[in-house]
Amino acid sequence: MQKPTLPKGTRDFGPEQMRKRLFIFDTIRQTFRRFGFQPIETPSLENLSTLTGKYGEEGDQLLFKILNSGDFAAGVTELDLASGSKKLTPKIAEKGLRYDLTVPFARYVVMNRNSLTLPFKRYQMQPVWRADRPQKGRYREFYQCDADVVGTDSLLCEAEIVLMIHEVFRNLTIQDFTLKINNRKILAGIAEVIGAPGQEGTLSVAIDKLDKIGKEKVLNELQERGFSDETIASLEPLFLFGVSEPTEPNQILDQLKNWLSASDTARQGIAELEETLQLVNQYGLSDSTVEIDPTLARGLSYYTGAIFEVKANGVSIGSVSGGGRYDNLTGAFGMPGLSGVGISFGVDRIYDVMEELNLFPADAGQGTQVLIIPFDTEARSVALPVLRQLRTAAIAAEMYPDLSKVKKMLDYANAKNIPFVVLIGSAEVQTGVLSLKNMLTGEQLKVTTDELIQRLG
C-alpha cells in the first residue's frame, strides 16, 4: 500500500487553519478595496517566454517548468541532450507555473490595454510557485496578495503603499513591524560613486543577501563578480547606515546626500523618497514604522525606483511584504514606457508570524455559530424552519444530521468550537419556545425564534 505524501514545500490546510487564513485574506482584501483597487485573476500557467528574463538569473532558475503535453521528448535528438539543460528546456517545456503575480499582471495589462482605464489599480490574491529549497517561512507553493497601479509615475502611489502597509498590519494586530524603504536610483548612484557605473544590478543581487549571509560573504561575492578591491573598499559607508549613523529617515537621507552628492541619479532617488515621506506626513499617518535602509536591494531585476520590504519584529521569519516601482515592465511585451508600482503581502509568512505571536483573535473566521439539536423526528420538523430563519438572518447555523444521544451532539459542538446550541425536545415542540445553551459558560435560557435571532445576529 502506498503511503500518502505531499511534495516538499507544500501543505494541506484544515478547517481551523483555513479560518485563520481567510481572516488574513479578508483583512487585506478590505484594505485593497478601501484604497480603490479592483480584483483580477490570471492563469496558474504562463508561457515560459512570458516568465523568463524578468526575475534575474537566480529567479529564472527557480521557475517551475511544465513538460509539454503528450510525448514531450519525441523531437529530442542526441545533440539536444548533449547541449545541456538550458538549450534542451525550450524543446520539451513551453509553459511554467507563475513565479509571482507582477509579471503576469504586466502581460495582462498589455493584452487588455485598449479596455483599461489608466491609471489602472488592481489587486490579485492567488498562489505562486518557486522551485526553492523549503525551509521555515519559505515554501514552494504559497499565496501572494498584490496591489499595483500602472499608468502613472506619481509618487502619491508610493505614499499610498506606505499607508496600505500600515493599515493592513495594524488591522491584523501585528503592531511591531518595520517598513524599510529604499530607491533603486540610490543603488545606481552608489555604483557610480564607488567607480562601478552600470553595475547596480550585480551590486543589488549581492547586497540583497546581506541579512542572510552577512557583510563579508557579500563582499566576497562582489569580488568574485569582478569588483576591484578599491571599489569594494569605497562601499564601506553603505554598511554603516543604521549602525553608527542616525536612523531617523530624514537624517539618513541627509547622510546619503553628503555621500552621493556626485551622482545625479542618486540625488533623484533621494528626492523621490523625500517627497514620498512628505505625502505620507500630509496624509496624517501616526506612529509610522518607516525606516530608510540604503542596503535594501530586493534582487528582482525589474525594479527601477522605490523598493519596499516589511519585517515583523520579534520573530525569526523573513520579509512578510515587499514591492517597488517598475518603469518599463510592460516594455518586454511591446508596450514600453508604462510605469507602475506595487506591493505584495505574503499570506503564508504572515500566518506564521501571527501563529508564533498568538495574534489571531479567538473568533477569527468563526464557522458555525449555532448548532440545532433535535431530540427526535417531531423535534426535527420544528428545527428545520428555525434553521431556515437563522440562515436567512445571515447567522451561520447547522443541524446535527443524526438522531443521536444528546451528549454525542454536544461533544460535536465542542469539537467544532460552536459557541451556541439550540436544544429542541418535546417541551420545546409543545410550547414553541427554544432552549439556547452557551457552550462557553454553560448558561441556558428559554428564547423564542425571534429572540434567538436577535441575540445571535
Attribute tags:
five-stranded mixed β-sheet; Rossmann fold; 457 residues; 16 strands; BirA Bifunctional Protein, domain 2; 2 domains; eight-stranded mixed β-sheet; globular; alpha+beta
Quick recap:
The protein has 457 residues and is of the alpha+beta class.
Question: How would you describe this structure to a colleague?
Answer:
The chain has 457 residues and is of the alpha+beta class. It has 2 domains: 15-63 and 99-356, BirA Bifunctional Protein, domain 2; 370-456, 3-Layer(aba) Sandwich (Rossmann fold), CATH 3.40.50. It has helices spanning 15-34, 48-51, 56-61, 78-82, 85-92, 102-111, 156-171, 184-193, 200-207, 210-224, 229-234, 249-259, 264-283, 347-356, 377-392, 406-415, 426-431, 449-456; strands at residues 38-39, 45-47, 65-66, 95-97, 120-129, 141-150, 177-183, 290-292, 306-312, 321-326, 340-346, 370-374, 397-399, 420-424, 434-438, 444-447. A hairpin with a 5-residue loop joins strand 15 (434-438) and strand 16 (444-447). The longest helix has 20 residues, at 15-34. 36% of the residues are buried.
